[in-house]
Amino acid sequence: xxxxxxKKDGDVPAVSTASxxxxxxxxxxxxxxxxxxxxxxxxxxxxxxxxxxxxxxxKKDRVITIYVGSPTEEFQKVFGKEAKIQLNDxxxxxxxxxxxxxxxxxxxxxxxxNVLTTSLKVDRDANMGIVSDIKEELRKVNALKINYTTYxxxxxxxxx
Amino acid sequence: xxxxxxxxxxxxxxxxxxxxxxxxxxxxxxxxxxxxxLDRMLPPIDDSQVTPPVIKExxxxxxxxxxxxxxxxxxxxxxxxxxxxxAVAFLDNGGSASGxxxxxxxxxxxxxxxxxxxxxxxxxxxxxxxxxxxxxYITVQNEIVAAYNELRNRESQRLYKRDFTDMEAEYxxxxxxxxxxxxxKKRVKNIQTLFPQKFSExxxxxxx
Lengths: 160, 208
Fold this sequence. Notes:
The structure holds two protein chains of two kinds. The mean pLDDT of chain A is 82. Chain A has a domain at 50-159: Nucleotidyltransferase, domain 5, CATH 3.30.420.270. Chain A has a six-stranded mixed sheet with strand order 1-7-6-3-4-5, covered by helices on one side. Chain A contains five helices and seven strands; from the N terminus they run H-H-E-E-E-H-E-E-H-E-H-E. Chain A has helices spanning 2-9, 20-34, 73-79, 97-107, 128-140, and strands spanning 50-51, 55-56, 63-69, 84-87, 90-92, 117-122, 145-152. Chain B is of the alpha/beta class. Chain B has a domain at 57-198. Chain B has helices spanning 15-29, 83-91, 134-160, 164-172, 178-194, and strands at 36-41, 60-65, 71-73, 76-78, 123-128, 199-201. Chain B has a five-stranded mixed sheet with strand order 4-3-2-5-6, covered by helices on one side. In chain B, a hairpin with a 2-residue loop joins strand 3 (71-73) and strand 4. The longest helix of chain B has 27 residues, at 134-160. The radius of gyration of chain B is 27 Å and the shape is elongated. The model of chain B has no long low-confidence stretch (mean pLDDT 81). At the A-B interface, helix 2, strand 1, strand 2, strand 6 and helix 5 of A face helix 1, strand 1, helix 3 and helix 4 of B.
């Protein structure tokens, strides 16, 4: 009997943490592979509308992004609350969109210059005036393929 | 003499700490991107002097959005939830009489003579105000795309026993093999000719 009771005497044996690095590494690799580094910080409110009939934007290198929305709080003192266009890291006027697209297009390799898509990330509270101005500019530089980037969801949620 | 023998083992106890540090760095910088959206083609700027062909009034489905987000569909104030239904009815109408070259053999609509002749003739025209909210605009766009997709899926199910949207997604997926793409391309193109997206956007009106 004493043989069994002896085992209960001691403390609870410590859990081996030897496999902890392995687990952490596994997580690390997961996040490393799914990570997309943010190349620009978004300075505008950017709550995208929802849509159900979306198509995925494949191939990141073929996408040029334009952000539109009202400036975030820290920039509101300078730029006001009216929706603004953000190109790269700065606020711009609609007339600058054309040259920005041409500049971005020139950076890409020649064989994909004709298949670029412009992704419009527009806040759902922005109004259509600014969007139409952008579209007009895009037509002028012949960047005709656009994508209204949205979240996946029920489109009627946009209404309220 | 104790120096001889196997070299001392490197202490790997801090390995976990280093890995944690990296892990936290990647956790913070990660944005799992949600890049999906509605694809559209803008019309090229047309500065030629050619007069556009005359389009019959009944082949145009006019949608107007005002600045408070109300919808005028075919001169009728319409709730946005009814838009898809109306667009489907319009596109699928097939008003041409059987026997004429414009007869639509696959349409299942009412064949109303006052509505569109054929899906290939039917045009949806969207007009919006400068002050229309973007969210509303996207909802309208989404509903119109949904109407097209519904009809395309129906035809695709009939011909190929598969949804059009499904086929298109596989066709656009870079991982699909070339042979599979070749087959899909033909099918996708075929469905697209049955129900082409003829979708015109007028320049936005300013003021009210």
